[in-house]
Design goal:
seven-stranded antiparallel beta sheet
Length: 233
């Protein structure tokens, strides 16, 4: 009888270990989900963005549309600061959100954070009196050939870590960085934003030969770079 009980206990031990492992895994998933929801509900800090605070909003030199047209017609580069872009967005956008939840959801602002090599577009909303933010990273990829230059906008901010090239970091929900695939959840809102400025996007990105995003600076240059002549030193 003792031998029978020992055999039964030895057979049940692996099953018990597997059950405990599954329970521990589910607990870790639940904790991770809870932490993610917490950071998603916390709006990111926008105080470092030039122009977000009324105290550091620079005056516009002139209308952005006219500035881009003059740059293309006279063939000279133009540089826009982060503060000027955000001031222009604040003046140009009607920060109202209609629809069924117009009395509970409002769009408080659209802000652009310029970093070295990438831009972050942030939507700041208020739901039932609480602030929420969602953002998307943008990078400019340009190729030059004998026929001209091509500008493409990549909807990501690069890898999460140098040793983790995939997936790309697409943006942030609140304070939580999210992979590029999660942008599908907020892409309609950003497409509506782009649809509000078709002429500025055409002049600034499609017509310009070179576009450079630097820290707090956006430089647009209509001058086509001269390719070296074959055989020249």
């Amino acid at each position: 009888m003792a031998e029978h009980n020992d055999a039964t206990s030895s057979k049940s031990t692996p099953r018990g270990c597997l059950t405990r492992f599954i329970m521990l895994l589910l607990l870790l998933v639940a904790v991770g989900l809870g932490v993610s929801i917490y950071f998603m509900s916390q709006p990111q800090d926008l105080s470092d963005i030039q122009g977000h605070s009324p105290a550091n909003r620079p005056p516009l030199r002139q209308d952005i549309n006219a500035m881009l047209r003059n740059s293309l017609e006279s063939s000279y580069p133009v540089t826009l600061t982060e503060g000027e872009i955000n001031r222009w967005l604040l003046d140009a956008l009607r920060t109202q959100q209609g629809g069924l939840f117009a009395d509970k959801v409002s769009l408080d602002g659209v802000w652009v954070r310029l970093e070295d090599g990438r831009a972050e577009v942030v939507l700041e909303r208020r739901v039932l009196g609480k602030s929420f933010t969602t953002s998307m990273y943008l990078q400019i990829e340009q190729t030059e050939s004998d026929t001209g230059s091509t500008t493409e906008i990549q909807f990501h901010g690069g890898p999460f870590h140098p040793y983790l090239p995939f997936p790309k970091c697409g943006g942030r929900f609140g304070r939580l960085p999210v992979p590029q695939g999660f942008l599908l959840l907020v892409m309609p809102a950003f497409k509506n934003l782009a649809a509000a400025f078709p002429e500025e996007l055409r002049l600034g990105f499609k017509e310009m030969a070179r576009v450079k995003i630097a820290d707090e600076r956006l430089t647009l240059d209509p001058r086509v770079p001269q390719l070296p002549v074959p055989g020249s030193p």
